[in-house]
């Protein structure tokens, strides 16, 4: 964190007493801290305490003429690398959600274009109140990052969700939030950015094309939508993604390493070249067979009325290959199974046959609209058995899967 500047906004809650410790931890990592107190925050800790620990003036008023002359309030947020709100009270979160700017803290929060991380702290019933929950959804959609709250005993004598995370956990979240982000976060609650930072994940996607001659090929209806969404979700969680894609309809997401291939053979080579990886997600609809008597020139009707016969051979099974035990094997291998009947039974069998850790199975029979569509209904089969997910957008499946991968890699 050397040289990074954190604008630390301190709201009015008993958890503010943990702020001095957080400032100490941040300073020990080389970060510069500019404290800003709300009026309520100043009831729980003092500008003097925070100034001494931060080694620079704490700010608490929008109307401080001297401070404004020296460094305007917009400048305060412009100078920061990250804005952290700790504790983020229900009131401060409500102001943020509604764009209210009636004191220095809320004005800075509205004026900033930097990433904002909040550490909520409040009474359990305030946390669960529909108004707070509505505000949280809005803030998540706005890309605000969260750390906590935790479950536990509260200063008010109750028990439940609303305890602010400990300074060490907030420090970790700050470190993650400061890590370079290739793109802005998807506006979704499931994404916990940074969980996969430093990890490398290979994602295969799309169909493959197996040539018959220079203008004809064997293909399938895969659009590549699910694979692209998974790559984007993994990227948003901080992973480095090698995206090996066949000729898909859907464009690859930004911020991933794109390796374009045509055939299963090329996909196999590209996956091998991308190793080592922490995880592999094989979402491609790889052609099972390729034509062995493909022609270097365009095939012509020969006037006999007899169609040419194509000879085929089986393609390498990339999923089975990468799942083989050995140094090369990623820690987590996820396969897909598109089935048209007895989905769970076939997919459970496929998981064992291919040796992968999880199979994401879906029913692609006609009428489901899944293949080439925008929604998916999957069952994830792990060593613990099948886990049925409700039908949802492919984006949402991707985020849920990325989250699960983040948890598995720990
Ligand atoms: O056997 P099936 O094609 O149904 O298996 C599907 C799973 O195996 C998918 O994860 C797919 O990406 C992968 N696969 C592969 N190489 C093949 C065939 C399938 O990686 N040649």
Protein model, in words:
- The chain has 14 helices and 21 strands.
- An eight-stranded mixed sheet has the order 12-11-8-13-16-17-19-20, with helices on both faces. A five-stranded parallel sheet has the order 2-1-3-4-5, with helices on both faces. Strands 6-7 form a two-stranded antiparallel ribbon.
- The chain has helices spanning 19-28, 47-54, 65-70, 73-78, 90-98, 104-111, 124-128, 130-141, 167-178, 225-236, 264-274, 318-323, 343-354, 394-409, and strands spanning 5-10, 32-37, 82-88, 115-120, 145-146, 150-153, 159-163, 200-205, 210-213, 216-218, 240-245, 257-260, 279-282, 289-291, 312-314, 332-339, 358-363, 375-376, 378-382, 385-388, 392-393.
- It has 410 residues and is of the alpha/beta class.
- The protein is elongated, with a radius of gyration of 26 Å.
- The protein binds cytidine-5'-monophosphate.
Keywords:
32% helix; eight-stranded mixed beta sheet; Rossmann fold; five-stranded parallel beta sheet; alpha/beta; single chain; binds cytidine-5'-monophosphate; 410 residues; 14 helices; 21 strands
N-to-C CA distance: 22 Å
The overall strand count is: 21
Low-pLDDT ranges: 181-190
CATH class of the largest domain: Alpha Beta
Secondary structure layout plus pairing:
Layout: E1 5-10, H1 19-28, E2 32-37, H2 47-54, H3 65-70, H4 73-78, E3 82-88, H5 90-98, H6 104-111, E4 115-120, H7 124-128, H8 130-141, E5 145-146, E6 150-153, E7 159-163, H9 167-178, E8 200-205, E9 210-213, E10 216-218, H10 225-236, E11 240-245, E12 257-260, H11 264-274, E13 279-282, E14 289-291, E15 312-314, H12 318-323, E16 332-339, H13 343-354, E17 358-363, E18 375-376, E19 378-382, E20 385-388, E21 392-393, H14 394-409
Parallel strand pairs: 1-2, 1-3, 3-4, 4-5, 8-11, 8-13, 11-12, 13-16, 16-17
Antiparallel strand pairs: 6-7, 9-10, 14-15, 17-19, 18-21, 19-20
Cytidine-5'-monophosphate is lined by residues 204, 264, 282, 284, 286, 288, 315-319, 335-337.
């Amino acid at each position: 964190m050397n040289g990074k500047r954190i604008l630390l906004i301190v709201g009015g809650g008993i958890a503010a007493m943990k702020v001095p410790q957080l400032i100490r931890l941040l300073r020990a990592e080389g970060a510069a801290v500019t404290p800003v107190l709300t009026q309520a925050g100043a009831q729980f800790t003092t500008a003097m305490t925070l100034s001494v620990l931060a080694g620079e003036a704490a700010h608490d008023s929008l109307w401080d003429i001297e401070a404004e002359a020296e460094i305007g309030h917009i400048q305060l947020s412009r100078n920061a690398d990250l804005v952290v709100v700790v504790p983020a009270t229900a009131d401060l979160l409500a102001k943020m959600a509604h764009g209210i700017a009636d004191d220095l803290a809320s004005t800075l929060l509205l004026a900033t274009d930097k990433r904002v991380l909040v550490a909520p702290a409040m009474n359990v019933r305030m946390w669960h109140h529909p108004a707070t929950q509505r505000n949280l959804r809005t803030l998540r959609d706005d890309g605000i990052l969260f750390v906590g709250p935790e479950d536990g005993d509260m200063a008010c004598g109750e028990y439940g969700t609303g305890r602010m995370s400990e300074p060490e956990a907030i420090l970790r979240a700050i470190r993650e939030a400061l890590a370079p982000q290739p793109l802005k976060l998807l506006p979704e609650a499931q994404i916990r950015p940074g969980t996969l930072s430093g990890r490398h994940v290979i994602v295969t996607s799309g169909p493959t094309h197996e040539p018959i001659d220079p203008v004809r090929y064997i293909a399938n209806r895969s659009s590549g939508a699910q694979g692209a969404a998974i790559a984007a979700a993994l990227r948003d969680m901080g992973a480095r993604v090698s995206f090996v894609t066949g000729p898909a309809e859907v464009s690859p997401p930004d911020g991933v390493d794109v390796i374009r291939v045509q055939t299963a053979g090329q996909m196999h080579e590209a996956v091998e070249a991308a190793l080592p990886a922490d995880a592999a997600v094989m979402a491609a609809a790889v052609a099972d067979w390729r034509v062995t008597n493909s022609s270097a020139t365009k095939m012509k009707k020969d006037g006999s009325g007899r169609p040419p016969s194509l000879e085929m051979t089986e393609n390498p099974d990339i999923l089975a290959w990468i799942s083989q035990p050995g140094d090369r094997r990623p820690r987590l291998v996820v396969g897909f199974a598109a089935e048209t009947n007895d989905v769970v039974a076939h997919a459970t069998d496929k998981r064992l046959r291919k040796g992968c850790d999880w199979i994401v199975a879906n029913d692609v029979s006609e009428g489901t609209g899944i293949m080439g569509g925008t929604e998916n209904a999957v069952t994830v089969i792990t060593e613990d058995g099948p886990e049925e997910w409700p039908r949802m957008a492919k984006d949402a499946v991707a985020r849920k899967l990325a989250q699960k991968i983040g948890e598995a890699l720990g």
